[in-house]
UniProtKB/TrEMBL annotation:
Gene3D superfamilies: 2-methylcitrate dehydratase PrpD. Keywords: Lyase. Residues 28-260 form the MmgE/PrpD N-terminal domain. GO terms for molecular function: 2-methylcitrate dehydratase activity. Its EC number is 4.2.1.79. Residues 319-340 are annotated as: Disordered. It comes from Streptomyces murinus. Pfam families: MmgE_PrpD_C, MmgE_PrpD_N. This is 2-methylcitrate dehydratase. InterPro entries: MmgE/PrpD_sf, MmgE/PrpD_sf_1, MmgE/PrpD_sf_2, MmgE_PrpD, MmgE_PrpD_C, MmgE_PrpD_N.
């Protein structure tokens, strides 16, 4: 790996493009060739995972709205498929619909380091453009692995959250790079596309604060759509604000650490295998990633905790967990029984209370309004708080992925003073967990989430296509969209209010 120092430069420096981070990212993307077998296999897993959660969300309102908006943009040639829709759409609008479907349930992959990310959000735009441009499964695999490489490097090196900048700013850059790898574009074209995308997809984290709205699902799709449009403009010879990261009025200087910004980003050397995708992990439970281990921990604690005698529950955890989804966020909405699903899946007090009561987690039942408003649940929920523990924060940021911890220690105090406690460092499904997700687990998740909407034979066809992704021809990419009952989807869509399109 090569260590790159990224800092702010005044315009008078005329920073050469070869010294700009966006150029270095583009070099890695356009230099992605032969893939390590384990990286390619993990990319297949994530294609399966994305389809699982996308199909499971088709009859949810934000997804239906995105699909309705996309439907007005049928492709005059080729185009791309949309989950649950009968017609092919222009690739940027197909990305809008599919990206929203993938993100809606907060149930696909994650990578946490200096910042947060859902690298699987790169896949919808890459798949859409692959279909539209007639690329093969091997081309798509190369693009996915390249995008993950860039995304993980940025998340490791540059923290956005401390400045309350939303993490999709890193996603946009990664997607632009993945598109460059997919289309085998010149490095200069990718360089310009990365800069345009970063410039247009930087937004605040208010989308994940307080009363969290449906925009949380739309934000990654917006970034993917913007990346496609930026690549299109760059291919036509248009340039971008440059240097977008290092400029004196650029991303680092005005959005992050200011004129004194100094970040380190590690990128692979030429010819070095792209293995960053192997550092990422998916979710067994439909909730914010920092809650994954908490759900598994609650299942263990439930067996020895008389819930009607609980006085308090305190989760000792990392800075990120405490301040983002814990009581340290100081969001009263995290304790509100009428809060939106998007808010509840970012409330570890709610998640811990329900998991203690139910001993399980379900992507729909656990968030149902009647579930959240159950009196005994509300009573337990309001006894749950979080505190930051410096040791858990240190473990959260451990440079060794094998020692990194995203869980915490739960201390339950009963009315008679009895203390019950236990801890869990990583979720059971994490690569270092008790039951790491393997191909069979990804296939099982797909079958479970699609059992009511995809016939068993269609499930088999999809899994066969995904598992042979490297051998798929361009027309065969259609097989990555499981056949669903489009009549039921159309009936749901017909009930939506009309918009402009």
């Amino acid at each position: 790996m090569i260590e790159h120092h990224v800092r702010v430069h005044p315009s008078a420096d005329r920073l050469p493009r070869e010294e700009q981070l966006a150029w270095k990212l583009a070099i890695v993307a356009t230099g992605t060739e032969e893939l390590a077998p384990d990286s390619a296999a993990m990319a297949v897993n994530r294609v399966i995972d994305n389809a699982s959660v996308a199909v499971a969300s088709l009859l949810r309102r934000p997804v239906a709205v995105a699909r309705a908006q996309a439907a007005a943009h049928r492709a005059p040639r080729r185009g791309a498929s949309v989950f649950g829709a009968p017609h092919r759409i222009t690739p940027e609008w197909a990305t809008w619909a599919n990206g929203t479907a993938v993100r809606e349930l907060d149930y696909h992959d994650t990578y946490l380091a200096a910042d947060y990310s859902h690298p699987g959000d790169n896949i919808p735009p890459l798949l859409a453009v692959a279909q539209h441009t007639g690329r093969t499964g091997a081309d798509l695999l190369r693009a996915v692995v390249a995008a993950y490489e860039i995304h993980v490097a940025l998340v490791k090196g540059i923290c956005l959250h401390e400045h309350r900048i939303d993490h999709v700013a890193h996603l946009g850059a990664a997607t632009a790079c993945g598109l460059g790898a997919l289309l085998r574009l010149p490095t200069e074209t990718v360089h310009q596309a990365v800069q345009q995308t970063v410039h247009t997809t930087t937004s605040t984290r208010q989308s994940r604060k307080g009363e969290i709205s449906s925009w949380k699902a739309y934000a990654p799709a917006f970034a993917g759509k913007a990346a496609i449009e930026a690549v299109d403009r760059a291919m036509r010879g248009e340039t971008s604000p440059s240097p977008i990261y290092e400029g004196e009025d650029g991303f680092l200087a005005r959005m992050l650490d200011g004129p004194g910004s100094d970040y380190t980003v590690w990128l692979p050397e030429p010819g070095e295998p792209r293995r960053a995708i192997l550092d990422t992990y998916t979710k067994e439970h439909s909730a914010e990633y920092q809650a994954q281990a908490v759900i598994d921990l609650a299942r263990r604690l439930r067996e020895k905790t008389p819930l009607d005698k609980v006085r308090s529950v305190v989760l000792h955890t990392s800075h990120h967990t405490h301040h983002v989804i814990g009581s340290g966020a100081n969001d009263p909405q995290k304790y509100d029984p009428t809060a939106s699903r998007e808010t509840l899946d970012h409330s570890v007090p709610y998640i811990l209370a329900v998991a203690l009561e139910d001993g399980t987690w379900h992507h729909e039942r656990s968030y149902a309004p009647e579930r959240a408003r159950r009196p005994e649940t509300v009573a337990l929920w309001r006894k749950v708080t979080t505190v930051e523990d410096p040791e858990w924060t240190r473990r959260y940021h451990d440079p060794d992925p094998g020692r990194r911890a995203f869980g915490g220690r739960a201390v339950i105090t009963l009315e008679d003073g009895t203390v019950i406690e236990d801890e869990l460092a990583v979720a059971d499904a994490h690569p270092a967990g008790a039951r790491p997700f393997d191909r069979a687990a990804y296939a099982g998740k797909f079958r479970t989430l699609t059992e009511n909407s995809v016939a068993p034979a269609a499930q088999d066809r999809f899994l066969a296509a995904a598992e042979h992704l490297a051998e798929l021809s361009a027309p065969d990419l259609d097989g990555l969209f499981p056949a669903v009952d489009t009549g039921a989807v159309a009936e749901y869509d017909a009930c939506l209010p009309k918009g402009l399109f």
